UniProtKB/TrEMBL annotation, chain B:
Belongs to the binding-protein-dependent transport system permease family. The chain crosses the membrane at residues 12-31, 77-99, 108-129, 141-158, 192-209, 245-263. Keywords: Cell membrane, Membrane, Transmembrane, Transmembrane helix, Transport. This is Carbohydrate ABC transporter permease. SUPFAM superfamilies: MetI-like. The keyword Membrane applies. Residues 73-263 form the ABC transmembrane type-1 domain. It comes from Phytohabitans maris. It is found in: Cell membrane. The keyword ATP-binding does not apply. CDD domains: TM_PBP2 (cd06261). PANTHER family: ABC TRANSPORTER PERMEASE PROTEIN MG189-RELATED, ABC TRANSPORTER PERMEASE PROTEIN MG189-RELATED-RELATED. It is a multi-pass membrane protein.
Length: 325, 278
């Protein structure tokens, strides 16, 4: 029998017993090692191609058309949607809101997270308890957070205005002023993500070799000096990572501002579009009531471009800051 | 040594406690309002202890004709469970392939996966919506399940874990015994991946349960929402019965809180480990 040709078959193996060494099995197993890996990684690539990459690229194609949900024809209009956007005041208002909320929600968030991580990076009792304490906001749903904070910031019965009243300030009508709604929405984002980023920073801090600090201490560097001259520079890759992730998330903000504004004007971000972000403006145009897919798609690509630009600018700023530190 | 280089001073504890209180307070307050009547909103000073109105609030919540809250909870459970099982399975399988099998182009493919984690795919909602219309999936749960069945994050996380947690000798031994790659995955790799799979499962479940934007775009039938859409319907009413709305947010948050209290340590470990390797 052919089995005897297989070098792996030991001389006394009974031929009737089809051990893995038989040619058919052998060929199968070669096919298996050759092609199975592709089979195993294929589901991700297939799904990403169909539901991730294709829609994103096709958005560009749609944005070059006059594309209405109900219309039969979708005439090609070139860059007409984009040039219409350039002179669309509501669009620029949404860009302004997006950037404003982004700055208010990202800068304090990352600074606070650094500080919290530095506190957590000490010998502590009840370590897990404190870590869970700072992470808990992150596990609550964005919609629930937005509803609860919307109430905390409400004009008449909100706890924030009540607390302001105790110190003789306010009350502030958070919903109807631009800055007010920006602050309220950014607070939700800060609250939700600070602890998460703190844990990421903490993980990176723990990877910093201890002897660096020890020798710095011998040289007489105080803890604060050690923090700025050792911790922060060595954390740079992690900070860059967090900044990019926050940029991608922060510029696409949608749920918080939508639920902060209830009623028919919610998607407009308030009666005067006080807090309408770009994603909300995209939704307003692309879905109910307008169903103007072409215009919405153009907004999506403008937002994509903005994300790329802001991410690059942020990374450059951090690099420069770290070099001069 | 327990943690860092420096001793925590009394000030450290005070600051951390303060941060903890700030973190927990909105959630706590949500539960307080959920147990009170709607008048509690107007009280000065605001109530900070639970009341006895929870049963009444629950009755009104589940009877609410706009929110379809029970359907929402059920739908979210179905969606989050299917997505979690699928993500854990496919991510483990792909992670195993990237970590332990040799194949042409594996490094390039892994780079592509890492890059996809940075792509704001949310911006593709318009064609995705059109695609769902073509498939006839609008307003149906598969529209939110299928696109989420496997994630780049999951594959990457499992690859990182598999490359250090599964020994090559064990795989080689199984191969010599005549195991095919899938059998190796099932009998040797999967058991070793269990801790990471659990963390990935928890993170995936929470993310999926909380997802809002895509379900909001594609599930337009108010009678078939996910729980987050129910919350939106609740809070968007003309007449705002805040204790009822807060009962809704509290119930929708409860499953996540339970998961977090039981598995908090593992979730924190997962987030921090992922951070170091990323």
């Amino acid at each position: 029998m052919a089995t005897s040709l297989d070098i792996r078959t030991e001389p006394g193996t009974p031929v009737t017993h089809r051990r893995p060494g038989s040619p058919r099995r052998h060929r199968l197993s070669r096919l298996d090692t050759k092609f199975s890996p592709y089979l195993y990684v294929a589901p991700f690539f297939l799904l990403f191609a169909v539901f991730g990459a294709y829609p994103l690229v096709y958005t560009l194609w749609v944005s070059l058309h006059e594309w209405d949900l109900l219309a039969q024809e979708h005439p090609f209009v070139g860059l007409a949607n984009y040039s219409a956007l350039m002179s669309d005041g509501d669009f620029w208002n949404s860009v302004y809101n997006t950037l404003g909320i982004f700055v208010l929600s990202t800068v304090p968030q990352l600074l606070l997270a650094l500080w919290l991580a530095n506190l957590l990076n000490r010998q502590l009792r009840a370590r897990t308890f404190f870590r869970m304490g700072v992470l808990i906001p992150n596990i609550t749903s964005t919609a629930a957070v937005a509803i609860v904070f919307g109430q905390l910031f409400s004009r008449d019965f909100g706890l924030v205005n009540w607390a302001l009243g105790l110190v003789g300030a306010g009350p502030i009508d958070w919903n109807t002023s631009k800055l007010g709604s920006w602050v309220a929405i950014s607070t939700m984002v800060d609250w939700r993500w600070t602890g998460y980023n703190a844990l990421i920073f903490l993980a990176a801090m723990q990877a910093i070799p201890r002897d660096l600090y020890e020798s710095a201490a011998i040289d007489g560097a105080r803890p604060s000096r050690q923090f700025w001259s050792i911790t922060v520079p060595l954390l740079r890759p992690t900070i860059v990572f967090c900044v990019i992730i926050s940029t991608i998330g922060g510029l696409q903000l949608f749920t918080e501002p939508l639920l902060f504004n209830s009623g028919t004007n919610a998607i407009r971000g308030g009666t005067l579009r006080e807090s309408q972000t770009m994603t909300m403006y995209m939704f307003e145009n692309a879905f109910a009531p307008n169903y103007n897919f072409g215009y919405g798609a153009a907004i999506a690509w403008m937002l994509f471009a903005l994300i790329v630009v802001v991410a690059i600018v942020n990374v450059l700023i951090i690099r420069r800051a770290a070099r001069s530190a | 040594m327990n943690g860092g280089l420096w001793k925590g001073t009394r000030l450290t504890y005070v600051a951390l406690l303060l941060a903890g209180v700030m973190s927990v307070f909105p959630i706590y307050w949500m539960f307080v309002v959920a147990t009170r009547s709607s008048d509690a909103m107007g009280e000065v000073p605001p109530p900070v202890t639970p009341g006895g109105n929870l049963p009444g609030n629950l009755d009104r919540l589940f009877a609410n004709a706009d929110a379809h809250f029970l359907t929402g909870m059920l739908n979210s459970a179905i969606v989050a469970a299917s997505v979690t099982i699928s993500v854990v399975f496919f991510s483990s399988l792909a992670g195993f392939a990237f970590a332990k099998l040799r194949f042409r182009g594996s490094n390039a493919l892994l780079l592509v996966i890492i890059a996809t984690m940075m792509v704001p795919t949310q911006l593709g909602v318009i064609p995705l919506y059109m695609l769902m219309t073509d498939l006839g999936w609008n307003d149906r749960l598969q529209a939110v399940i299928v696109p989420a069945l496997v994630t780049g994050f999951g594959v990457f996380m499992m690859r990182q874990y598999a490359s250090q947690a599964v020994s090559d000798e064990l795989i080689e031994a199984a191969r010599v015994d005549g195991c095919g790659t899938f059998r190796i995955f099932r009998s040797v790799v999967a058991p070793a991946l269990r801790p990471a799979a659990a963390v990935l499962g928890l993170l995936t479940f929470m993310t999926t349960w909380n997802d809002f934007l895509w379900p909001y775009a594609v599930l337009n039938d108010p009678e078939n929402p996910t729980v987050q859409l129910s919350l939106r319907a609740l809070s968007n009413g003309y007449y705002q019965d805040m204790s009822q709305v807060f009962t809704g947010t509290a119930i929708a948050t409860l499953p996540l809180l339970v998961v977090f209290i039981i598995f908090g340590r593992q979730i924190i470990g997962g987030i921090m480990e992922g951070a170091v390797k990323a």
